[in-house]
Each structure stands twice: as structure tokens, then as C-alpha cells.
Amino acid sequence: MMNASAMDRQAVYEDYERTRRTFHQLLDSASTADLARPTRGTKWTNGQLLWHMLFGYIVVRALLVLVRVFGRLPRGVGKAFARLLNAGTVPFDWVNYAGPLGAVKVFGPRRMAVAFDRVLDSLQRRLAAESDADLARGMHYPVRWDPFFKDFMTLADIYRYPTQHFDFHHRQLTLDSDDGRGGKPEVS
After folding, report:
1. Which of 61, 95, 126, 145 has minimal CB crowding within 10 Å?
2. What whole-number distance in Å separates Cα of residue 129 and Cα of residue 106?
3. What pTM was computed for the model?
4. What gap in Å lies between CA 66 and CA 87, rounded to an integer?
5. What angle (nearest 5°) sits at the alpha carbon of residue 88, between those of residues 85 and 90?
6. Which residue from 22, 7, 102 is spatially nearest to 57, judged by alpha carbons?
7. Which of 169, 123, 186, 184 is CA-nearest to residue 22?
């Protein structure tokens, strides 16, 4: 288990604020055509990928509950649960892909920005209230579901996860390209 007292909460807060500024800047500067443009390395549009990036923070609230439950159970129970979830990777992948397709029809840029702020504020309040013992509690995760899931993750790891997810997908956006193929303009 990780040494929870080693978690730099301020660094997590700063990362959350950085992603908040970035998310708002991306939404504020994107035209309707920009949001409809394909992304780099995904089947989503920029708008759909932005929603998926927001969802990475939203899902953390559910993951926090899972850690609180499975972190108190024998490790074997958590391992079995992770194996069961890994077995369900195909339906998870389908839902994970299809969710943003419909979500952007309901959550336009303005609603995404509001939702992003709310979820970050909620996560920051929760993190402030966590004890070191809570942050050290952990569980096994389905490693096939996400490249940032490790076999065993603590609550502290879960608070860091959405920013890793955000930064990874941020590189796949084509909002700053001229050609829609991911080519970045030359900077002199």
C-alpha cells in the first residue's frame, strides 16, 4: 500500500484547476465545426471526446464508493470482483464508446462546462475531508478497462486518475489543427 501521508493534496488540487482552465478554454474557443471535427486516434468527434474527458471525472465519484466498500472487504473479494469486471470488458467498451455519442446531444458546451465545475468542486471537497487512512485504503481494478487502472489502486490513486485520463485524451483533440487530421500549425 502507498504511504497516504506522501500524497500531495495541493498538487492534486492544482492539477484539477489546470484541467478546469484547459477544459473551459477548449470549450470557449471551439466553434460548432471544431466540435464536429474527428479526433486523433479515436472514433469520436472533438465534442464527444470532451464529454468523455468530463466523464472521467464524473466516474471517479462511483469509484470512490467502490473503494470504500471493497477496501474494507478481504482482498480476495476485490480480486474476484475485478476479474468479473474484466470479463465484462466488451460490453463496457461498447457503453464507454456509445455514451459520448448521445451525451453531446444533451450536454452542449455550456452544460459540459457547468458539469465540469460541479464535479471538480465536489472532488476537491471530498479530498479535503479524506483522512490519511482513507487515502491508503484500496482495491483491485479491472486493468482491461482503462490503461491507467492498475491491479491495485488506493483512494489517493483514484483522486489522481481523472487528470491522467484527461491529459491523455487532451492530446487526441484536433481543436488546434488547421486540417482536422491532427497536424498542428507551425509556430515561428
Report:
1. 95
2. 32
3. 0.85
4. 18
5. 140
6. 22
7. 169
The whole-angstrom separation of Cα 15 and Cα 59 is: 17
Cβ proximity of 61 and 119 under 8 Å: yes
Q: Measuring CA to CA, which residue among 173, 165, 142, 162 is closest to residue 34?
A: 173
What does the DSSP assignment read for the chain?
A: ---GGG--HHHHHHHHHHHHHHHHHHHHH--HHHHHSB-SSSSSBHHHHHHHHHHHHHHHHHHHHHHHHHTTS-HHHHHHHHHHHHHTHHHHHHHHHHHHHHHHHHS-HHHHHHHHHHHHHHHHHHHHH--HHHHH-EEE--TTT-TT--SEEEHHHHHHHHHHHHHHHHTT--TT-SSSSSPPPP--
Residue 176's SS3 state is coil
Q: Is 11 within 8 Å of 148 (Cβ atoms)?
A: no
Q: What is the chain's pLDDT, residue by residue, as a tens digit (188 residues)? A: 444 446 899 999 999 999 999 999 999 999 999 999 999 999 999 999 999 999 999 999 988 998 888 888 888 888 888 888 878 777 776 787 777 778 888 888 999 999 999 999 999 999 999 999 999 999 998 887 888 889 899 999 999 999 999 999 999 999 975 444 444 433 22
Q: What 3-state class would DSSP assign to 71?
A: coil
